[in-house]
């Protein structure tokens, strides 16, 4: 620390010595006032500062982006805080620094010198002119002018939310020199990309890149410089607060079939879930632009969930009617066959017919033979054969409550599978868009 202090003292002493000698003269306030008076004498800021008026002034522009203020998908507005580095040559602003105490750079106000009058040509509202009366411009002895106007720029942005919330946006902010043709003011970009050296991270958007280009407008007489920023949404917030609740609601919609029909709460449960999904559809629609091209895939996803919920309500009502039917009502044969097939009766329990008495012409199944009661001597009692046949028939009787139970399990598995499948398909398609 002591050595650093000594170094500062030595530098100060050297500067004082050089300024006190006849070899080096340090600029004073009088030199600065004299310089400003001389270079501003007969200076007309309304005339382009080039000796040959047929030549265009080369204006070099660099965009410095500080932070993203807002990106409104509904209003298609992109707002950011930034500054522009504008450089050009003014031949009237040249001097010999040795005549002004070695003064090689000075400053002038925005209103005291010619500027290229840049305007935001892609405004989200009224047209905005770049620069303010409080801006200060730096000028070197060679006539090079440096201007750094800063502001909150609000530009339009073409929004594509097809893959929301994994969408990628390209927002272009354009500037033009007001009132000048390309052969009068030639806009060029100082570097191929936007400068992010002072950028502060945004909580919702990630900057993936940028590009800068110049182009001609209208009839090809006016020039425009454009700065494009590539943004990708940080989807964690939307996934946690929107997508995951919809998946849970879809699964809860299918869980209605676990409730016992006697509870009487099934219909109210399914309608409540249907309304909850409809509310989420409203929330999503409020955060997206009102456009039909392209329609966000998440809208199709929520519509599929809404249709699935409506089908769940329909199946629940239909199943309630089946469950309340009397056991004496005959179940159609095709439903009985479907029920028996799902229980794997035909594949897990095959009956083999064996002769009981070939002379009598009676036949009985092997299962019935095993079910015959025997007397105390271990001999089968044929009087019990009718009972066994009737009992076997009763064990295979399919009632409406059995059909209702079958529909519950099919619906539980089917709707749960469809809900998970639609979610993973949506995640796969949207996330692969990057």
Short description:
This protein has 434 residues and is an alpha+beta fold.
What can you see in these coordinates?
This protein has 434 residues and is an alpha+beta fold. It has three domains: 2-234, Neurotransmitter-gated ion-channel ligand-binding domain (Acetylcholine Binding Protein, Chain: A); 237-325 and 407-431, Methane Monooxygenase Hydroxylase, Chain G, domain 1, CATH 1.20.58; 333-398, no CATH class. The chain is built from ten helices and 14 strands. The chain has helices at 2-20, 29-40, 236-254, 266-286, 297-323, 333-342, 345-348, 366-371, 385-395, 400-431; strands at residues 57-72, 77-89, 105-109, 118-120, 128-129, 136-140, 144-147, 150-156, 168-177, 185-189, 205-217, 222-233, 353-357, 362-365. Strands 1, 2, 3, 6, 7, 8 and 10 form a seven-stranded mixed beta sheet that branches. It has a five-stranded antiparallel beta sheet with strand order 5-4-9-12-11, with no helix packed on it. It has a two-stranded antiparallel sheet with strand order 13-14. α3 (236-254) packs antiparallel against α4 and α5 (297-323) packs antiparallel against α10.
Total beta strands? 14
Q: Can you tell me the CATH class of the largest domain?
A: Mainly Beta
Percent in helix: 25-40%
Contiguous low-pLDDT stretches (5 residues minimum) are: 4-24, 349-395
Q: Oligomer, anyone?
A: single chain
Keyphrases for this structure?
Methane Monooxygenase Hydroxylase, Chain G, domain 1, Acetylcholine Binding Protein, Chain: A, 14 strands, 3 domains, alpha+beta, 434 residues, single chain, 5-stranded antiparallel β-sheet, 7-stranded mixed β-sheet
